[in-house]
């Protein structure tokens, strides 16, 4: 059916990476380049009384020192809530909060300069847990309102239930652990910034930099070289703005590269959560109510916490059919690192609560947990109560296939101390995300004209009407940005090769290869005929970035738009030569030929040359763009936030040692409905990588804190799963064609992370009868649960 789509294809960036010739930000060296390091707060919560940089300036080789007071738009510069400064000036809110930067001739000298900065602090009470953050004596920020996603009547649904399950689940804070740490090389020539950085969202960074330095966006250029899988950690990227501020101050290129401990200490993290859930169910397995109240440790700044809460509310409401759903979310400020997305964007955490509960509900009504899921699973052409319009959906097929494959060849353990069993969990994600970012914060850093006027009464964005501040006429009428667009520029050269500029960065997952494959299929050429130029904000295109499993779907549709325009132009040229109608021409293997007369054929290269060589030449440069038909959620949180939704089911076989509590995952089956698979080899690799990340998050990873200080800020003490513990993995794709996707494709990069905690917890209970409700699932937690279970049994016997 296809020449390129669906065929295993080598990553176009692969050779450079395996040979070491790929250029990452840390590899870039510019003439006259300087280096900078930041001063990190040693306290979790303190007022800054004074900052003295005089001794730092005396260190030989130190060129300059910069603080927040040196930056024009320093305050309210960063984050979806606009509550973070580039460099904090008044109060530090977590250990690692950045206060100043020293610019020097090399990194060692910059570090010496940092050590000489003297800061006088007034220490404040530290709130390092959700519980302490709920009632602070000295508030970190004003408490924010709860967020709700509601449909139906939960209390009514609980009354109608034959059984009600109430439980609590918790998940820890997690470090993203990117293979390359945060890095930036910035230069400023007195008028224009050029910034090389490993960001996920270059166009957001351009907007924020323009706001911070009070310059037009046309004076900011962001270029993204090779990127080392930030897994969501660079959606709001503080180091970019600090590096740019350093270059702005000294008018020379400045490089900043975090070391690994700084990456742990200074950067945003995956939040910790506490989920209080209630589920109502009938004896026949019909869900009558789903209720969840979530507490989120958003850290010292709001970061992405509200957006994560909204996302979790939608996920909670859209995996199973239920008429009565309520999800409430409370972000809690603490003196921990601030929140940002991480691969799956809150999905793994809420899925752990949902899928653990589904197995418990199945036990309550004596139903097979697979049967319970199949009974309640959403289906194709179904609109969820929260507003998701699901079109392609292979969820039930994924559940059945995963269940079948995991039971195949299963054999019980011969060791009396080792119990083997099986667990399953399923999930849903999105492809793109029209969340409706606050447009006022986006443009000004403030959510209301009153707040902006209080700080900046002379702001050009506001006007006074009857003495009351309002947004100026024509500024913008809506609080939500209704956009999830990507675009591209496709140029056909005169010998038939193609240059493709894309707007969204490749983070290592193979975006550029998929984009080239889509264009190659439409134009009838080889992937090797296409040169992909990565994200560069001076390219004349725009994209919202690489996150939320959106690039294959959204950017892929943009490439389709441009490629079909190019094909139409080339068909118009070829039709004159071949004497055939344009719509009757085919493009394959570098040729253009008639569908009905194989003698009418010519090389695509010849058609392209004619486009350049004749007086009436067609300009073979084409812009493509796509904005999905998704809907910004309304005030009740309802709306179809994406145009397509991938589904999955994952099953695990585990061995549990009853004497030690050690859990070994022996096998994993991961079945996915991600629409048509464009590059099978790449897709399998994506699932394997995400799955291992999910296993690691489920069983070993957790940032350990004491009074706000991380005590395991390195890979010696922060336990990422090692390759010797990776189980056997079987990947299967249920290719339910997505009507709106490029060649029927949906997103794939995040879903495989999602179900591991729930599947493993379910398998453990099936093995030894204990339910683990707190992540990570460590041997000590499992053994403790086994010991408590045995103690309860002994107490029951004694009572008899």
From TrEMBL:
PANTHER family: ALDEHYDE OXIDASE 1-RELATED (PTHR11908:SF132), XANTHINE DEHYDROGENASE (PTHR11908). Keywords: Molybdenum, Oxidoreductase. Transmembrane segments: none annotated. The lineage of its organism: Bacteria, Thermotogati, Synergistota, Synergistia, Synergistales. Residues 19-125 form the Aldehyde oxidase/xanthine dehydrogenase a/b hammerhead domain. This is Aldehyde oxidase/xanthine dehydrogenase a/b hammerhead domain-containing protein. It comes from Synergistes jonesii. Gene3D superfamilies: Aldehyde oxidase/xanthine dehydrogenase, a/b hammerhead, Aldehyde oxidase/xanthine dehydrogenase, molybdopterin binding domain. It comes from the Bacteria. One of its GO terms (molecular function) is oxidoreductase activity.
């Amino acid at each position: 059916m296809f020449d390129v789509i669906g065929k295993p294809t080598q990553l176009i960036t692969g050779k450079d990476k395996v040979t070491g010739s790929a250029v990452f930000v840390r590899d870039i060296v510019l003439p006259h380049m300087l280096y900078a390091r930041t001063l990190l707060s040693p306290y979790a919560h303190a007022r800054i009384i004074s900052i003295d940089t005089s001794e730092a300036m005396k260190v030989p080789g130190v060129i300059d020192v910069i603080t927040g007071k040196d930056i024009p738009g320093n305050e309210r510069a960063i984050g979806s809530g606009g509550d973070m400064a580039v460099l904090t000036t008044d109060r530090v809110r977590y250990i690692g909060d950045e206060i100043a930067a020293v610019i020097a001739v090399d990194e060692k000298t910059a570090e010496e300069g940092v050590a000489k900065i003297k800061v006088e602090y007034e220490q404040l009470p530290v709130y390092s847990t959700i519980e302490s953050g709920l009632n602070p004596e000295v508030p970190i920020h004003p408490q924010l309102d709860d967020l709700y996603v509601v449909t139906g009547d939960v209390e009514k649904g609980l009354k109608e239930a034959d059984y009600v399950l109430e439980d609590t689940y918790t998940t820890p804070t997690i470090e993203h652990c990117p293979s390359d740490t945060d890095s930036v090389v910035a230069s400023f020539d007195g008028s224009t910034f050029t910034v090389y950085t490993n960001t996920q969202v270059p166009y957001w960074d351009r907007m924020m930099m323009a706001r911070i330095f009070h310059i037009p966006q046309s004076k900011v250029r962001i270029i993204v070289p090779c990127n080392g899988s930030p897994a969501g950690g660079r959606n709001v990227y503080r180091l970019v703005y600090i590096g740019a501020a350093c270059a702005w101050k000294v008018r020379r290129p400045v490089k900043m590269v975090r070391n690994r401990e700084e990456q742990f200490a200074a950067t945003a993290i995956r939040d910790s959560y506490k989920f209080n859930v209630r589920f109502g169910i009938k004896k026949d397995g019909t869900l009558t109510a789903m209720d969840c109240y979530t507490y989120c440790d958003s850290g010292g700044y709001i970061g992405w916490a509200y957006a994560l809460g909204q996302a979790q509310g939608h996920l909670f409401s859209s995996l199973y059919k239920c008429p009565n759903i309520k999800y409430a979310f409370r972000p809690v400020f603490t003196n921990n690192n601030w929140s940002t997305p991480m691969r799956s964007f809150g999905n793994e955490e809420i899925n752990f609560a949902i899928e653990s509960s589904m197995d418990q509900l199945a036990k309550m009504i004596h139903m097979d947990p697979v049967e319970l899921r199949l009974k309640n699973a959403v289906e194709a052409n179904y609109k969820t109560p929260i507003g998701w319009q699901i079109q392609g959906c292979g969820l039930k097929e994924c559940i059945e296939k995963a269940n079948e494959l995991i039971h195949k060849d299963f054999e019980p353990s011969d060791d009396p101390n080792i119990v083997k069993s099986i667990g399953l969990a399923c999930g849903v994600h999105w492809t793109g995300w029209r969340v409706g970012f606050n447009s006022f914060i986006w443009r000004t850093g403030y959510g209301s004209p009153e707040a902006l006027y209080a700080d900046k009464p002379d702001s050009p964005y506001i006007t006074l009407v009857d003495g009351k501040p309002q947004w100026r006429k024509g500024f913008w009428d809506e609080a939500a940005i209704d956009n999830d667009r990507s675009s591209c520029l496709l140029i056909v050269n005169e010998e038939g090769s193609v240059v493709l500029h894309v707007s969204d960065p490749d983070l290592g997952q193979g975006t550029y290869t998929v984009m080239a494959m889509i264009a190659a299929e439409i134009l009838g050429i080889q992937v090797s005929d296409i040169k992909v130029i990565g994200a560069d904000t001076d390219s004349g295109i725009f994209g919202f970035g690489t996150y939320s499993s959106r690039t294959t779907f959204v950017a892929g549709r943009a490439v389709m738009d441009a490629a079909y325009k190019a094909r139409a132009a080339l068909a118009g040229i070829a039709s004159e030569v071949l004497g055939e109608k344009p719509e009757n021409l085919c493009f394959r293997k570098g040729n253009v030929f008639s569908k009905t007369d194989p003698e009418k054929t010519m090389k695509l290269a010849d058609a392209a040359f004619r486009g350049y060589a004749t007086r009436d030449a067609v300009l073979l440069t084409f812009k493509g763009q796509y904005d999905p038909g998704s809907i910004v959620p309304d005030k009740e949180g309802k709306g179809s936030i994406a145009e397509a939704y991938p589904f999955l089911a994952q099953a695990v076989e585990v061995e549990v040692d009853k004497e030690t509590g050690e859990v070994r995952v022996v096998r994993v089956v991961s079945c996915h409905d991600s629409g048509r698979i464009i590059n099978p080899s790449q897709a399998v690799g994506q699932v394997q990588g995400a799955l291992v990340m999910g296993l690691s998050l489920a069983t070993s990873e957790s940032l350990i804190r004491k009074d706000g200080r991380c005590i395991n800020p390195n890979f010696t003490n922060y336990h990422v799963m090692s390759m010797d513990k990776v189980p056997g993995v079987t990947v299967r794709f249920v290719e339910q064609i997505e009507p709106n996707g490029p060649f029927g494709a949906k997103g794939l990069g995040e879903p495989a992370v999602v179900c591991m905690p729930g599947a493993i917890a379910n398998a453990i209970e099936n093995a030894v009868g204990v339910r683990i409700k707190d992540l990570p699932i460590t041997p000590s937690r499992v053994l403790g649960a086994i010991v408590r279970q045995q103690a309860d049994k002994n107490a029951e016997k004694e009572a008899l």
